[in-house]
Design a protein that fits this description.
three-stranded mixed beta sheet, globular, binds zinc ion, two-stranded antiparallel ribbon, mainly alpha, single chain
């Protein structure tokens, strides 16, 4: 095995427990169970007869609930982290499963609380929410009730849930089975290789143009073979969504997602329109890339072709230094916080057999500090990954001021600190490079990453909108879906990129369409928000820093809209979203200047 610079970088979980057989694990679970039973005995009656429910009792309940969840979180995190670090160890698997099962039992004892709170009449609930005693829990108590108009009776909910297993969930499983069993046959060096979907898609990043073209043709050729089934699954699920929306009194197919994201739909509409208006920015880049590749025009399979030269190897110690220096340039507090992760061993970075792939940051609760896992492989992408996860880590540290219920953020703002951290490190790295080819590779890579998040996810959302509205008229056919897909993509690629006709199957393997409709706009929101904030930082300089830190400290204590206001951000204004595109234009202009 090649020597790896992150060898030996393992996390120290002793702040949670000392070993998988630490006796305190069992005693914590036991005391959580007892506390949950006591909680139910003490508060069920009060919650279910809300005319006598006082703010003082509700406050007591919230405090008690937070204590139980915190304790459960400590055990759950420990078991989960231990398992992630070594998935092959049977005793870790056992612990993880045991903790999960026991936690579910305990959580079920507490479930009545949320349901009962949802049932409390508006008038009584409003009075309680307004009470000063409950100030710290106001956002949580309010936002929990947002599903109230869309929740059915207990019997109906139960029926829907149980029928879903053989209904929409079954179609979802069928989709996963079909797409994960796909085999793509590709001739390479006189051999026929059999590849899975992610393997063949990764060939689109290869330097050999002919290989990229054949890989793309093979992908859509194979998908078209399953076109009838994939169309039937998607068509059925859209109809199912439309039916359930009607039963739950949602006025619009996206409404449920907006509610989950705590975002007003009109802000999303504005954001998407601004993104669309900026498609010409992408066209400019595609023409620039064609020039770099010495092609008259870019084809779809050239989009991710490599350009310039990669910086490699990038040792872990250097990554640590670069990240800390980049954070320091933003604010010394950032460096101090991130420095703790390295110094106190809160990061597990080495590549080991049995360790989980990918990367994540776990921020279990305000009483505990976060942990970061990654698989550091000495390349630039991994430097960015560490910067990303440490961004989450800083957010997790700074928002420890909040109580348990105000700690987490909704999806739309969950990636703010992570992507911001990446931007800081990216700019810092770019500045340090003097090799022109390396600068080209860095900039192109960043721009393409941003496009994949901002523009492509916007196209995906537009396609979903088109599909839902077409389904309201009639059943969807492969032909109809293909047309809608090409229509949505045609706007993005314009005349700058040629799309092969087989690309009409491009929609058919995307899991988000199947498992979580309209999820994709959250990516656009998160990325553009950060780009716009980053732009503000550049424009405002140091005066931006304390406002940004205050935003991270606020955790999830209010809706994103409200939390962003002190920064002068209004997500309903097109001008705000446009700032994000100015930042993107800055990157493409920089690239142009180098070329
Ligand atoms: Zn992230």
């Amino acid at each position: 095995m090649a020597s790896n610079s992150a060898a030996g970088i393992q996390w120290d979980l002793s702040d949670l427990f000392v070993a998988h057989d630490d006796r305190r694990i069992e005693s914590t679970l036991m005391s959580c169970r007892t506390s949950a039973e006591k909680f139910a005995a003490r508060f069920r009656e009060a919650l279910e007869h809300p005319t006598t429910l006082s703010a003082a009792i509700l406050h007591e309940a919230m405090e008690e609930l937070a204590l139980i969840y915190e304790a459960l979180g400590r055990v759950g995190s420990y078991a989960g982290l231990l398992y992630a670090a070594d998935t092959a160890k049977p005793e870790y698997q056992d612990l993880d499963q045991r903790v999960e099962q026991r936690s579910t039992e305990i959580r079920n004892l507490l479930l009545f609380f949320e349901l009962a709170w949802l049932k409390v009449d508006d008038e009584i609930a409003d009075q309680l929410i307004k009470d000063e005693q409950l100030k710290a829990y106001r956002h949580y108590l309010t936002s929990q009730r947002r599903y109230r108009p869309h929740t059915l009776s207990e019997v109906e909910e139960k029926l829907l849930n149980e029928r879903d297993n053989t209904g929409r969930n079954a179609f979802g499983r069928l989709f996963s089975e079909v797409t994960s069993s796909l085999v793509f046959k590709l001739e390479r060096e006189d051999k026929t290789e059999e590849l899975n979907l992610s393997q063949i898609l990764s060939l689109l990043h290869e330097p050999d143009r002919n290989l990229r073209r054949r890989a793309m043709e093979t992908v859509y050729q194979e998908l078209s073979q399953h076109g009838q089934v994939l169309t039937f699954i998607y068509d059925t699920l859209i109809q199912d969504n439309l039916t359930v929306d009607r039963l739950r009194s949602y006025r619009h197919p996206m409404e449920q997602r907006h509610l989950a994201n705590e975002i007003d739909g009109t802000a999303v509409k504005t954001m998407m329109a601004v993104a669309e208006k900026n498609y010409p920015l992408a066209h400019d880049y595609f023409r620039l890339k064609a020039k770099l590749l010495e092609l008259p025009q870019l084809a779809l399979y050239d989009q991710y072709a490599p350009v310039g030269k990669e910086v490699r190897p990038f040792p872990y110690a250097k990554a640590q230094q670069v990240i800390l220096d980049a954070f320091e340039a933003f604010d010394p507090k950032f460096r101090a916080l991130a420095g703790e992760f390295f110094a106190k061993n809160w990061i597990d970075a080495e590549i080991r057999k049995g360790k989980r792939g990918g990367a994540f940051c776990a921020s279990p609760s305000p009483k505990l500090h976060p942990y970061v896992l990654c698989n550091y492989d000495d390349n630039l992408r991994d430097v960015m990954t560490v910067a990303h996860e440490l961004g989450h880590g800083l957010h997790g540290c700074l928002s420890r001021k909040q109580n348990y219920f105000n700690y987490d953020t909704p999806l739309t703002t969950a990636e703010t600190a992570s992507v911001f951290g990446e931007m800081l490190v990216f700019d810092y790295l770019l500045e340090q490079q003097s090799d022109r080819e390396v600068q080209i590779a860095l900039l192109a890579g960043k721009i393409e990453d941003i496009f994949a998040t901002v523009f492509r996810q916007n196209v995906l959302t537009r396609f979903e909108e088109l599909a839902f509205s077409a389904r309201q008229e009639k059943r969807l056919t492969p032909d109809a879906l293909g047309k809608l897909w090409l229509e949505a993509n045609g706007k993005y690629y314009g005349d700058a990129v040629t799309m092969p006709d087989s690309y009409r199957w491009g929609w058919s393997y995307i899991p988000h369409f199947i498992h979580s409709r309209f999820y994709c706009y959250s990516y656009v929101f998160g990325q553009l928000l950060v780009l716009a904030l980053y732009r503000m930082y550049k424009d405002e300089g140091k005066s931006f820093v304390p406002k940004y830190i205050a935003l991270l400290e606020a955790g999830g204590s209010d809706t994103p809209d409200t939390l962003l206001k002190p920064l002068g951000v209004d997500i309903h204004q097109p001008e705000f979203w446009q700032k994000g595109f100015e930042e993107i234009r800055g990157l493409t202009t920089k690239l142009q200047a180098i070329i």
